[in-house]
Design goal:
Strand content: 15-25%
Shape: globular
Number of helices: 11
Number of strands: 13
Radius of gyration: 19 Å
Distance between the termini: 54 Å
Length: about 300
Amino acid sequence: MASRLIVGTRGSLLALAQTRNVIHALQTTLPHTLEIETRVITTTGDVTLNTPLPEIGGKGLFTAELDAALHDGLIDVAVHSLKDLPVGADLPNAPLVLGAICQRATVQDAVISPDGWQLATLPAGACIGTSSLRRQRQLLRARPDLQVRSIRGNVDTRIGKTRSGAYDAIVLAACGLDRLGLAHEVTERLALDLMLPAPGQGAVAVQCRQNDAATRAMLATIDDLETRNAVLAERVFLAHLGGGCSLPVAAWAQSSGDDLVLWGRVCGATQDATIDVRGQGRNWRQLGEMLAQQALRQGARELLN
C-alpha cells in the first residue's frame, strides 16, 4: 500500500538536514512504500535577522507559519527543532500534536573559535556571540569579563561571521553542528554544569494534526519514548516558569532506571542570582511541576521579571 506525505520544514541547511533524517527514519521503519514531498516554508524568524531574539520575544518565531500550513492542510507534518516549539504544543487536546519526538542527539552547547580559544582561555574582554539569553547569562556567570554580543543567522552564516573577525568565538548547539558535518569546527563542548541546555535541545519533533489518525500512526513508528519523557519534563518546567523559549531558563532530564532525573536552572545575570534545582521521579509532568515550584519558591519569578 502506497501513502503520500507532505513534509513542511524551514529552509535552513540544518532544518533540511533534520528533515532528511526524519524522512529516512520513516522510510526505514514503515513496511509499505511512502511517497514523500518536502515543502519549504519561510518563517518570521528566518527573515527577522537584525533584532536580537530576546527583544522579539521568541514565541512561535520559527514555527507559526508551519503551524498555519498544517492547519490549512498544505502540509501533513512539520519538522522542528523541539526547543523552538512554544510549550503550548504539548497540550493533549490541541489541534496540532507532537506525533513523534525522535531519539535525542547530544544536548551540549559548543564553542567555535577560529583561533582555537576555549571558554576558559579566551583573552580578557574577548567578544563572544550568541542569540540566546540563556547562553549569555551562563557565559557571564563563568566569565564576567567577556563581551557578549547578539548574533543571528543560520549556522554557516554565524561561523562565517566568526571567521571574518567580528567575534572571537561563538556558542552554538553541538547537535546542529554534528548534523551538518561540522563537528570539526568545535573547539570545546561545554560541560553541562557550566552550560545547561535549553529545554528540548538536541531533540527533533514532528508535528501533525490531532485528527489525522493515519499520519499519527506513521509517526508513532519513529517516536522515542525515553526522549519524549525527558524533554516533556523539561518543557513542563519551562511552562510553569512562564513558557517563553527566549527566557533564560535551562533544563536537562535523563533516565535513571525507571526514574527521570531533572536538573533545572533559572539563569541570573550573576552567579549569586542563579537558581539551580534538581529532582527525581517517575512521572515527567509531576517532576517538571515540582521543580518549577521549587524554583519559584527560591525567587525565580522575580529573577525572570
